[in-house]
Amino acid sequence: MQYILSIIIITTLSLAQEQNYIWPTDASKTVTAFFGEMRPHRYHTGIDIRTFGVNGKEIYAIDDGYVYRIGVSNNKYGNVLYIKLQDGNIAVYSHLSKFNPIIQRVAHQVQNKQQSYTIDYYLEAGLINVEKGDIVGYTGDTGGLSGPHLHFEIRDQINQPINPFNTNLKDFFFDNIAPIPQSIAFIPKSDTTIIEGTYFTKKFNLNKIDDNNYNLLDTINIIGDFGIALKIIDQVNGQPFKYGIYSLELLIDSISTYKINFDMTSFNQSNQLYIERDYELFSREKDEYYRLFKSKFGKNYFIEDNSSQKNNSSSGLHAFKVIAADINNNKTQISGYFRAKELIKPEKNYYQLNNGSWKIDFKGIQKIYKVNANLFNKENINEKIEPLYDIVNDTSLVVHNVNNTYDVLEFDLNTLNGKTSKEYILLNTPPQDINGNFFINHNEEGIIVNFIEDVFSNKSANLKYRKNGILHSTPMIRSAKNILSSKLFSFNDFLLTQDIYIEYDFDYIVSKKMNIEKMATYPNLFSQKTFKNGQIIISHQKETFFDSTIVYITQPFIKNFNNESIISPFYIGPSSTPFNKPLGLSLFLPSQKNLTNMVVCSYDDKNKEWIPLETALDSINNILETQIRAGAIVGVIKDTKNPKIHNIVPRNNATYLMEDLNNFNIKLTDDFSGVNYQDGIKLFINGKSILTGFNLYQEKLIAYIKENITIGKNTYELTVYDNANNKSTIKGSFFIKEK
Ligand SMILES: [Zn+2]
Questions:
Q1: Is the Cβ–Cβ distance between 118 and 72 less than 8 Å?
Q2: In this structure, which CATH number among 2.60.300.12, 2.60.40.1220, 3.40.1550.10, 2.10.109.10 belongs to the domain 644-737?
Q3: What pTM did the predictor assign?
Q4: 183 C-alpha to ligand 1 centroid (Å)
Q5: Under 8 Å CB-to-CB from 582, ≥6 apart: which residues?
Q6: Could you tell me the distance, in angstroms and rounded to a whole number, from the CA of residue 153 to the centre of ligand 1?
Q7: Could you say which of 3.90.180.10, 2.70.70.10, 3.40.605.10, 3.30.2350.10 is the CATH number of the domain covering 2-172?
Q8: What is the predicted pLDDT for the residue at 237?
């Protein structure tokens, strides 16, 4: 009886909550981003509505309610309005150009009272009531770099963001295109897992059967614990954008093992993002893969509680199926098979024939069915061509189009005895010398030491290291054409290794030493260590990482920088482990007389440029301080250029009509470290300090000048700092007449 009663109550409640919201703006009904999409270090907690590059479109109260909270800031939400609706939910409108005049007046009073441009103000219920359809503000581009749009959220009674399309707002929006998967990844979940012959995450292309069905053509060979991740987007009729999806479910042998749906979240779960989307694939390749297994750290409301943390490949053939859906319930199925089987590694012999072609003879296989092959260059570049080949006598290959440009063959074979592992061979004279760089790949499961060869050596090598005084040697695996990779070290194992080097097995011995210094970090423990003879100080605040791990400093994995750093750049890891919170990094530079204009930077290898990090200066101790939120190459750049003030209005000695001069029109730009908009803009009008803000997207000064100018002559002085303490000042006067 009680059960029936509670069902009745729940039904009544949910009926009472059935909304009848109106669309929040007249700008458009085009949505450019969904709820639950990936943003740097957080989830997108609303939807973005397109305003087609224009500011000032009306926004409406989507239901009756009252103005509950007003925010003004230079970054993040910019000008933001919160309306408490009659059903208890909160509608949030952000990046506004301005509020309606009544709300604008309150915001301005609060700013003046608090003597701060930035405010976050809660209003009492009933102070400013609104009715459904009232204009409450205007769309804009404040707070961010992304340009004009309306970021719109709905939050529940306790301020938790809910999917706006789980309300009647979904009815304003049409979409019958099913999600489109792009590739699938298999991820090792133990230090003994082998996926297609390697210890690494492997990606596979999918085969399209029809708009709603995709599959993996090859059965994947996996031994041990693993996880699956899927790169998938949604599309919407008539729109060019790529969207996040609404839900995913993984079934292994028809049993559901993982479910996620983007219904609601909490702001204290932002740190879940990089343990839900796969951080290794994201940090290495900027690819967005939804993991189809749960992390053991923290709680994520999106993920169903009883989801598995990993899958296991035991004997026999297993089927997997992923069901992906968008918010309109358009569905796509992705299916395939995996089995616990090792790849075969046949012996081979290869040589050049008189006609210039190359012949490869395999031993220990009966018949080659299929050849999967590419021809590459031996340099560390990834251009490839298709080889022209013949299978001869069932067990030999003859490759015809080998030349000096395309001389490395990558191949694997499907044979009567099974699939072979992937191999690389040089069909050319081997290089005389070996050069390259070390790179550590450090993910949640452990640490792999990689050596990236400048030129494909065609040789095998061992990783050698000392542990507890004993010399160890383990074979390296060629994990890609120019990359030799070690076994996976556990965190504790790697902590104890010393004197790491790679040794090639030539006619003579070639060895390369790795320089690495490391420190252990443990959750909930503060720790600090100096590196490079005291030049680098790393402070691990509590909870920088979800789990115990290693922080290390090593040489960068690239050699050629634009040569601007005043210290020799170093790499600080972990590389593919997500940071839960930032890591403190201090640089002690006693040889530099003056650190005033120095900025700590990370290097963007893709665009070959230094990216300034927020840097604090301790000039007494000659220390630069910053924080990093990901593994990075770090350097220090001297910023010598002053910020620029592009003064359009007021012009010096010009005359303006009072009614025309609502704001100054001044653009502030900086070439490198950026305008210090938080506390580096100082404006005086007639000797009085004026509250200022900054529009990041337009790079424009925001100043409330109306109440501070008078008929006749006015003077102004504007000083602007960049983030490296360089400054520029302009001053002058202008005249105001009434009519
Ligand atoms: Zn948004």
A1: yes
A2: 2.60.40.1220
A3: 0.92
A4: 26
A5: 541, 544, 627, 628, 629
A6: 8
A7: 2.70.70.10
A8: 92
